[in-house]
## 1
Amino acid sequence: MMRRLPKGLKRLIVALWLGFWIASLVIGCQPAAWDAEQGAAPPVVLKLSGWGASPVEQQRLRQVLQHFEAQHPTIRVRFEVIADQYMDVIKTRLIGDAAPDVFYLDALEAPFLMDKGVLEPLNDYIDASFALDDIEPMLLRPFQLDGQIYGLPKDYSTLALFYNQTAFREAGIQQPPRTWEELQQIAQQLTRDRDGDGTIDQYGLGITPELARLAYVIRAYGGEVVTPQGYAAYASSAAQQGLQQIIDQYRNQQTAVQPADVGTHSGSEMFGQGKVAMVIEGNWAIPFLQDTFPELEFATAEVPLINQQPGTMVFTVAYVMSRQSPHKAEAWQLISYLTGQQGMAEWTGTGFALPTRRSVAEQLQYDRDPLRSALVAGVEYATPWQVGPYPHAVMTHFDNQFISALLGEQPLSQALQRAQASANAQIQAAQ
């Protein structure tokens, strides 16, 4: 049986317990005594958001962030991966005052956010020590509006011609094509029924029939994808002239094929499997092919001239700062490190991304790399993948209608007119 405590002793214990509890609450709400004595404040925590990437890329970024924190002990970075519906999540948080301090922004999406005034202009943060002129101008341009810079590009890729060296040797072809006419001729030589069963098992060229891969073809003949106001403009006769060559090669010459035709999901995959002997792809294809198809002998060259004009696409992503960030000085320190010479050399040093700084490209010798030099060369004349403030309307209607023309379901001119009309109707409704 439990014995009862005397009333006086019981009151004393309760009083002591309450005093201890209140004291612990007060102490817990105050800065640590050591911090106060040392005059140190808790570190600023920055939130950095980006989309999902390969585990190797994510690990690399975390290493770069650790190096940043080691050099900036008063700042900690919390990296958040938004795995799905990235831009929808970012836009929702910007509206709800819950945006990250720094986040990835694709050039395709930049016009809309720059126009809405939710990004912090960076001009006043950039000084001579940052060496802005070291960054490729073509990569900086998509993040500029009315004289203001809203983002600094972290990496990029152009498109280049990938070709199967074994297939070239077997066909007696000495060098990659330099013009589109040569490309078509070589594609005919490389289109083969290797098994002799009446079925083509190696096509000359693999194509990806989408606007993101074809905008430079439109521009080669003087066409435009969008007007300065952001309306679709790809139904012009100039645009048709360039795109018709792609359709003719696919339908009439039958030397080109798209991934779905040969049971694959991408240009890199159908090239790696030997379904096509040439394909126009980006830097991302190099580590994929080396890891997945280690026995494949391949090389790269600049995209062949089309209408005697050099052309390719360039895809880039920037680090941007939210205008709502309460830690703008620290956010700039993070951006300037990640896009500066040291941070960029660390980030792009393994080769899965290309540096936007010329000095880093020279340091890593990518301009002399046998596989990457063609990609680096293309940035001088590339068409940035950016199609105004309503990109999804512009590209979705094009992609849907162009594939219909590619399959012979309607003439190209009709497909482009339908795509342009539908895209512009959607844009007008959204304004």
## 2
Amino acid sequence: MRLSSILIHVLAWAIASLWIIPFMGVFMASIRPLSEILSGWWNFQNINITPDNYINAWTNEQVPISRHMINSILIAIPSTIIPIFTASLAAYCFARFSFPLKNMLFLTIVLLQTLPQQSVVIPLFIMLSQMGLLNTLPSLVIVHTAFAAPWTIFFFRNFFATLPVEVEEQARVDGASDFKIYYKIVLPMSLPALSSVAALQFVWVWNDFFFALIFLSGARELQPLTVAISLLRGRYFVDWGLLTAASVLTMAIPLLLYALLQRYLMRGIVVGAVKG
């Protein structure tokens, strides 16, 4: 190997090691008794591996992680599927059809990506309250779908622009409608983009704390994992084993998703984000 390749590999491994050290601290604290980690999780003189922290977090009487994980799943799945369907359909129109003010509308959608969450939370709170959706799971699904629309449309439009038009033209000659071409030809060829958007959007919604805290403040039983973990912290005592176990359980679903979709993830991100 050339010296430059060796240096790149060493640098990459060094960065990966620095990134994984905090996770190792969290993981070691989650599988060891509290008395062993008080002097530091890196102290390996006495190691007693135990699943008690995970069991206590999963079945906690006041904040059961099992129930809040179901809430997170019920929020994240529709908040991922709905934007993928609606945004991909809109992006296909931008990529393949011409209509008045097309470029201006697309530019507006792109600029909406820069809209901060904090700037619209009060109008959203008032609107959802008037609609009777506060403290309900659909409120978060609606909000996450709306915030996902700009970047997913931009992402899919760039990816669709790289697909060969000849296949669609042949299908149109054979009598296929535009919608049939979209879901029978374009979507199957867009599996890398679909996988990338699904992973990114799912993890974004799964890790959301701000919207969940605001819009589900009056429904503790409906709050997702991100908010529930903060409730595990006691007023006078912090059980770090319980908190770290809940944190690892929260990370498990996104890590599993990335592992399943990693075959398509990087290809879809590179093409969808760069090609325009």
## 3
Amino acid sequence: MVMSTRLLEKTIGYRFRRKKWLELALTHPSYRHENSDQLEDNQRLEYLGDAVLGLLAAHALYQRNPNATEGELSKLRSGITRDETLANIAETIDLGRHLRFGKGEAQNGGPSRKSNLADALEALLGAAWKDGGQRAAQKVFDNLFPAVINKTSNTSSDLNPKGTLQEYTQQHSLPQPTYESIATEGPDHSPQHTIHVHVFDQIFSATAGSKREAEQRAAEQALCSIQNESPR
């Protein structure tokens, strides 16, 4: 290996029982191409790790964002699983220094290339799953992804203003918002729904192509009203 993996195992919070999986996760395809005795690289583990990451991220976001819809949760998950996010996490644990590259890739910025780092991080999750199942992968995820999960969950209010408004009223012991359908206008194939939300002893109104979207927009108006002044 490029350097001892003991520190890496400590950083990710999981010690491999079968080191072959860790070694394989850290083996870039360029290394296999230049070493005839190396029969595998980390691409298959990357494939597995991508699925593992999707599952663990989905579960974490589901738990942290009880008011988010399926579509909103999918948007949040995509922010966690994209290459840029994964590469940034890999950089924080100096993963590039542990990877095995062919000479050409190593000399041409392989250890710092974001695509290599993102792929290797997914392979690492796949390797943990192969070595110790879901519990092992969960340990790695819990050690490497909490800051990203927290940051992503904190931005969920932008995706779900209705849920955020309800949480605000609960936290401040205020009557919960109530939504009232006022009118539906326009052709059947393209109706426009007008919704009133009653909250803070006020009424906020919005119109949209679906009742849900109108409710979200009305809630957004109510939230804007408290940015500069808290309700009494």
## 4
Amino acid sequence: MASSKKTVLITGANRGIGRETARELATRGFRVIVAARGEDKAAEAAREIATETGGEVEPLVLDVADDASIQSAARAFGERHESLDVLVNNAGIFPEGESSILEVDRQAFFHTLTTNTLGPLLVARFFRPFLEKATEGGRIINLSSGLGQLEDMEGDAPTYSISKTALNAVTRQLAAKLKDKGIVVNSVCPGWVRTEMGGESAPRSIEQGADTVVWLAAEAPSSVTGQFLRDREPIPW
């Protein structure tokens, strides 16, 4: 008999919001796949989260900036699991030292877009067959940022901001195309969170940053799709 336990895959789950999301969902009884670029990092995080929560946690090597790595991860996942209930596209980068869109390096810009925008799209594409088999409908959650809001965008963090704006567009496109497959897709702004990326001066705790992601994974109604959310409420694009 197939297990009734839901499965969630979280990219970049070895640290920060991804790790906290993995911990909280493991506590809620999810089977958690901790995906990270390095085998050692994925294995160590999975082991620690399993020990802390008593949950079922597995490591998976996945580099969202590498097409071959994404395909290899999907094959490895398929050897162990038939379906995937939730995909959390959490992995991303925040380039340091950018002062102006007029000065950004072409290759650095391309790398940011590859990691923050194209990576989540390709992960969704290659794991889609497993999401389509989710018994209660699949869920994709993309970690975005308020810096990607066009409504009040200024000149800060240019390549990061643009990559997250584009990720929001990917979210809308995926939500429209996957609706008939029973898969819902949403973007989340976690706010400025005290993580390695956010820094110690950030006003929000890591638990606050992960809250909406966990809610979308475990509790939100399936009617919520194609949205950009912060603190469980829609915000302007």
